[in-house]
Specification:
It comes from Candidatus Fischerbacteria bacterium RBG_13_37_8. Keywords: Hydrolase. InterPro entries: ClpP/crotonase-like_dom_sf, Dearomat_hydrolase, Enoyl-CoA_hydra/iso. One of its GO terms (molecular function) is 6-hydroxycyclohex-1-ene-1-carboxyl-CoA hydratase activity. The chain has three domains: 20-224 and 273-324, 2-enoyl-CoA Hydratase, Chain A, domain 1, CATH 3.90.226; 236-270, no CATH class; 341-375, no CATH class. It contains 15 helices and 15 strands. A six-stranded mixed beta sheet has the order 1-2-3-5-7-10. Strands 4-6-8-9 form a four-stranded mixed beta sheet. Strands 12-11-15 form a three-stranded antiparallel beta sheet, with no helix packed on it. It has helices spanning 66-80, 104-111, 115-133, 150-156, 173-176, 184-191, 194-203, 209-215, 256-266, 274-288, 292-324, 328-337, 339-342, 349-357, 364-370; strands at residues 29-38, 44-56, 85-92, 97-99, 139-143, 146-148, 160-164, 168-170, 206-208, 220-222, 225-227, 230-232, 243-244, 247-248, 270-271.
Length: 375
Amino acid sequence: MSIEWLPRDSEMKNHSLFSEEYWGTEAPSTIYEKRPLVDPQGKVIEGLYVSWITLNNPKQFNSYTTRMVKGVIAGFNAASSDRSVVAVVFTATGDRAFCTGGNTKEYAEYYSQRPNEYGEYMDLFNLMVDSILSCKKPVICRVNGMRVAGGQEIGMACDISISSDLAIYGQAGPRHGSSPDGGSTDFLPWYLSMEDAMWNCVSCELWSAYKMKMKGLIIKAIPVLKHNDAFIRNPLVITNTYVEDGDIVYGEFKSGDAKKSADELMGKCQVDFSLLDKELNAIIWKLTNLFPGCLIKAIEGVRIKKKYFWDILKVGNRHWLAANMSTEAFLGFNAFNTRKLTGKDVIDFVRFRQLIAEGRAMDDAFFEEVLPKKL
């Protein structure tokens, strides 16, 4: 039976807000691709695709510039509104880093001491996180290397994370002049215990992929090193469980002679992402064989827990982070940006606290006392 009242408009609408001007292939950039969906036997499925959004700034550990942030927003908007896209893969170029956060060179040389400008930038950053959390397709973070600071935050905004076992995870904010308020203070308590979330936020320790798998931050840690044509687990990390002084040391980094031996073995290996991508394709295929409407409803039902605190706090955090660009962020980002000239990447924290205790104004003389000096 058919019902015909008025002629139907058969022209398909384009619901994307952005054009392709925000994407590129020359670093630093964000790359947007639609790759064909393949089944477990590698057969291409006609008419269906997977969107790949790739951070492309490998010389700076895929830290995102302002233009790259716009590219990520445009990519997720395009993928979300594309009927032929089954899922989104968020990843980066190379094998060293997924992302280390905002581009510290840009922060130090442009945004520091320009709080209004940084506030405008934070509006874009917030929209980038929003674009991930509101994407109408499942989002998989393919962690190809270190996921630190803002990189950790945009990674946690994704729905699922599958990781190279060489990847490391953590925050950098309190050590380098900021606070992990771009998502980590909102998301980490949902993934980890409250104390683990607290320590991860404030300690700036770097944790292995295996430790994060054990604690529930990621779904899989996949070997990517090949030695004599066989895959081996990350030799720098303890991947068997044993107890030392009452603490489980699974996932901790080796030290001493064990680390030295692991470093020597690493030098004889090649990085190969084929196992990682096989697992990635298996996840995508599983998602493909679900009702899409039911799938995204279930995903958004889980996402909303992360979104709740993110939405409550992002505006206030935006204003604090902007104001902070005139004080501690100015010091932290400039110390990090000049580390090749000074040999240090942080300020003199003890002297900083002494000057605060003396009630000193944060003027140029104050900054001069605590910033590292040229070699």
